[in-house]
Fold:
Amino acid sequence: MPRPLSALPVGLTWPAVPGVTLLGDAAHLMPPVGLGANTAMLDAAELAREIAAAPDDLAGAVRRYETAMFERSAVAARESARIMAMLMSEDGAAGLLRFFRPDGGGTPDA
Structure:
């Protein structure tokens, strides 16, 4: 049964909200090409590191996490969208083979 694929806009940000932040798919839902889960796990680790480094400054920890996460997740989301476009193109199988070529032909066109 066909299922829709959803993604948030690349580069999505939001204003800081005291005591609240997002991570993982809630912050940067992207096409399922292998980058989203890794990005989500890194989100959790970075947020935990920021909180542990400044337990008395939760707002600052969240701000530092969000600043880094916005930049990092935009790169991953852009790459995910590019890979998804390559896979959904008319020559998706051929494009996928080119992507994995060891001779440097692995840069998919978007």
User: Anything to note?
Assistant: The mean pLDDT is 88. The longest helix spans residues 58-88.
